[in-house]
Amino acid sequence: MTKKIFIDGAAGTTGLEIRERLQNRADLTLVALDDAKRKDPAARAEALNAADVVILCLPDDAAKEAVSLITNPDVRVIDASTAHRVAPGWAYGFPEMDKECREQIRKSTRVSNPGCYAQTFVALLRPLVRAGFVGVETPVTCNAVSGYSGGGRAMIAEFEDPSAKDFTQTAFRTYGLNLEHKHVEEMRVHAGLTYRPLFAPSVARFYRGMLVEVPLQLWSLPGAVNPQQVYETYKDWYKGEALIEVATPEETASLKTLNAEELKNTNRLKIYVFGNESRNQARVVAVLDNLGKGAAGSTVQNLNIMVGAKETEGLI
Questions:
Q1: What is the pLDDT of residues 130-168, one digit of tens each?
Q2: Which of 49, 227, 260, 274 allows an S-S link to 211, with CB 3.0 to 4.6 Å?
Q3: 220-256 burial code (b ≥16 CB/10 A, e <16)
Q4: What DSSP string runs through 210-243?
Q5: Annotated catalytic residue: which of 57, 101, 116, 142?
Q6: Is 157 exposed, middle or buried (0-12, 13-18, 19+ CB in 10 A)?
Q7: Position 41 pLDDT exceeds 90
Q8: 3-114+295-307, which class in CATH?
Q9: pLDDT at 32
Q10: Which residue spans of the chain are classified as CATH 3.40.50.720?
Q11: Using CA atoms in the order 245, 249, 252, 254, what is the torsion angle rounded to 10 degrees?
Q12: What are the residues facing 53 on neighbouring strands?
């Protein structure tokens, strides 16, 4: 028996990517509203309550409204917005984050899909915090760059459409200058930190791809650690994971640059540990596709867990 999946917000960037990954699945039936009914509250409520799993690809307020319209207790929800990522009663949809996460996702009726920046930051920091190498009160900085598709339709038009009001030919720009980026609290909570990390996001002139970096002054950390130990920590944490890879020290040592588009059009995440033992410093960096493992890919991964399918179905 196939599961009925309703994507609310299927016309947006993430919604389209999710649909592309699901449309040929024999075990799923995609339910869609025609354009005339997409903004009809009664039609939306009917579709939301008739589905086995609802995937929300909406702005935060609209996602909260959609959840409030669901009265059928059997309907399960994956929310790709920011609205519920630190909310009580919602499982955090990062299966590789910790040993119990897959089971929480499997059992939950409410799963919040992680943000692209946040998931990657947590992938880098949580293992080091749990190992005691990074203290919970350690001041942490995170630098990141994303392709412009991460900003949705408005930003895509800004970079691609000369007729758009805010059309730009800028090659690279930083943002979040008020230090209130919407991912920061999610990053803090799920990494296990007491204080909010200093987050410096940026966007560049490429469509999809992402680099997220955490520089580490190893000499300042409460747990005595060297670059090899950092690598071994990641290697053990993500052992056996199909979608997360840790580059070997040999591969990392051979690199002079790292390309943010390395994993575009994939659903994977790759971690690198660049270290200088004599300087007692390291840079831990992760590469992914912001629309793949950073958004649509992770949504499909969570859906697979929830419906009992192979976790990587439609992703590898």
A1: 999 999 999 999 999 999 999 999 999 999 999 998 999
A2: 260
A3: ebeeebebebbbbbbbebbeeeebbbbbebeebeeee
A4: EEEEEEEEGGGSSS---HHHHHHHHHHHTTT-SS
A5: 116
A6: middle
A7: no
A8: alpha beta
A9: 86
A10: 3-114+295-307
A11: -140
A12: 5, 76
Is 116 noted as a catalytic residue in this protein?
yes
Under CATH, which number does the domain 116-290 receive? 3.30.360.10
Task: Specify the residue for token string 């799963």.
Answer: 111
Token pair, residue 178, equals 């008020």
pTM beyond 0.90, yes or no: yes
How far is 79 from 86, CA to CA, in rounded Å? 12
Question: Please, what's the b/e burial string for 102-117 (b: 16 or more CB within 10 A of its CB; e: otherwise)?
Answer: bebbeebebbbbbbbb
Token representation of residue 294: 């950073």
Q: Of 295, 308, 309, 264, whose CA–CA distance to 19 is shortest? A: 295
280 secondary structure, DSSP code: T
Helix segments in the chain, DSSP class H = 13-22, 41-50, 60-69, 101-107, 116-130, 152-160, 184-191, 227-237, 249-253, 297-307
Hey, which residues does 272 pair with through a beta bridge? 285
